[in-house]
Design goal:
alpha/beta; Rossmann fold; Zinc Finger, Delta Prime, domain 3; 4 domains; six-stranded mixed β-sheet
């Protein structure tokens, strides 16, 4: 078993115990780990008054759960606080990286012994997604019987990585990356613990941007900077010192700042400009700089609709598949799927015809009045509606020659046919354009024959 904390037998101080849980030489992240609910930074959507995890902690009544969130947002800390809230509870900690079925059996044996002594047990499994199906199944009967409360932590989507049987027995709580205000508070705590010199405002912003929502990353960066600043440097810590202390780990763009958006713009324009090499370069720059690949995936999906559209309808499924693949695999494996999608989009034929048509249709509707639906297009599910003329005169296209009701109108009265959509003469849209031209010819012939 990776670790065990017996909260009732005196072998280790309980979580939240006023005695130090880490020595002066322990990593700063461990020394700063919250030991009470009031010390926790972030996750207000779960820990604010009335929210689910705070209610569980205050009531001391836990339910089995999965804590899903990116690294460094407090999953392990919350598990300890939750276990602490249960009177006389035993907390058993397993790491799915280091543990196997034998460790699970040992935990079950310890939980049975604790129950015999009148003590409840909380089993916390870190990185639960790394357990295979058989290992995850080993928890099921004991979660079902109430032998222990199960808490799993994962950075991966539980829908894909946790067995459905186990998932059905556990609530999923989503933890969010820490915001800039939360990271700034944590930075002040770290500075106080390390007795660091003051930081310039630029240095503070760069450290917060470097953390990118990850508390552990911020704390580790503070340790590295403090170690270098303690060599006799006078004056506040500035950005050059950060570069010296953190090297290439330092964020090379400011999250949410101009450079960040300049880089995503460069990626988008490289795809639009059909330059796969430049697109790969900017994708690599963003990933190397610490951009959230999920954000990049969302932008790639947008590119597929905005810049390729119906010129190659395979582009959108390719982008969606890349996003889903990243959710399943994470970094670095999932990044290859993003690269594949970016290259495909870059070399695909380009068209923004749907994008332009959608904007034009939205603008027209916003400026136009509310027009009634033409009677022949109205729904007519009842006799009364049919008596009122709903659906009267409607021509069912499948019964017409070539599956097209030539000359039929589908726009409200008073609106002339509006050419919102004009296919580009590239890729599949060239064929779509030819088809639409033939349909318009049939419309003209039907009109002239009347």
């Amino acid at each position: 078993m990776h670790a065990q904390e017996s909260l009732f037998d005196g072998d280790a101080p309980p979580v939240g115990d006023p005695r130090p849980v880490a020595g002066a030489h322990a990593p700063l992240a461990e020394r700063l780990r919250p030991r009470t609910l009031d010390e926790v930074i972030g996750q207000e959507h779960l820990l604010a008054p009335g929210q689910p995890l705070r209610a569980a902690i205050e009531s001391g009544r836990l339910h089995s759960m999965i804590l899903w969130g990116p690294p460094g947002v407090g999953k392990t800390t919350l598990a300890r606080l939750l276990a602490q809230a249960v009177p006389a509870a035993q907390l058993l900690v397993l790491s799915a990286v280091l543990s196997g079925v034998k460790d699970i059996r040992d935990a079950v044996d310890q939980a049975r012994a604790a129950r015999s002594a009148g003590h409840p047990t909380v089993v916390f499994v870190d990185e639960v997604h790394r357990f295979n199906k058989a290992q995850q199944d080993a928890f099921l009967p004991h979660v079902e019987s109430g032998l222990f409360t199960f808490i799993g932590a994962t950075t991966e989507n539980p829908s894909f990585e946790v067995n459905s049987a186990l998932l059905s027995r556990a609530a999923v709580h989503v933890l969010e990356p820490l915001g800039d205000a939360d990271l700034t508070r944590l930075l002040d705590r770290a500075r106080a613990a390390l007795v660091m010199p003051e930081l310039t405002e630029g240095a503070r912003q760069r450290l917060v941007a470097h953390a990118d929502g990850d508390a552990r990353r911020l704390i580790n960066a503070c340790e590295a900077v403090a170690a270098l600043a303690g060599t006799g440097r006078a004056g506040p810590i500035d950005e050059p010192l950060l570069e010296q202390a953190l090297g290439r780990m330092l964020r090379r763009y400011d999250k949410g700042g101009d450079l960040f958006y300049d880089m995503i713009s460069a990626l988008h324009k490289s795809v639009r400009g059909s330059d796969p090499d430049a697109a790969l370069y900017w994708l690599a720059r963003m990933i190397d700089g610490g951009a959230d690949p999920r954000y990049v995936a969302r932008r790639v999906i947008r590119m597929a609709s905005e810049d390729i559209g119906l010129a190659d309808p395979r582009a959108l499924p390719m982008a969606l598949d890349a996003a889903q693949t990243y959710e399943r695999l994470g970094s670095p494996e999932g990044e290859l799927a993003l690269a594949q999608a970016v290259v495909y989009l870059a070399v695909a034929p380009k068209s923004n015809a749907v994008y332009v048509a959608w904007k034009a249709a939205r603008a027209f509707v916003a400026a136009d009045g509310t027009r009634p639906v033409p009677p022949h297009l109205r729904n007519a599910p009842t006799a009364l509606m049919r008596e009122l003329g709903h659906g009267e005169g409607y021509r069912y296209a499948h019964d017409e020659a070539d599956g097209y009701a030539a000359g039929e109108r589908y726009l409200p009265e008073g609106i002339q046919p509006a050419p919102f959509y004009s296919p580009a003469p590239r890729g599949l849209e060239q064929r779509i354009g030819d088809r639409l031209a033939e349909l318009r010819r049939l419309d003209c012939a039907a009109k002239n024959s009347r």
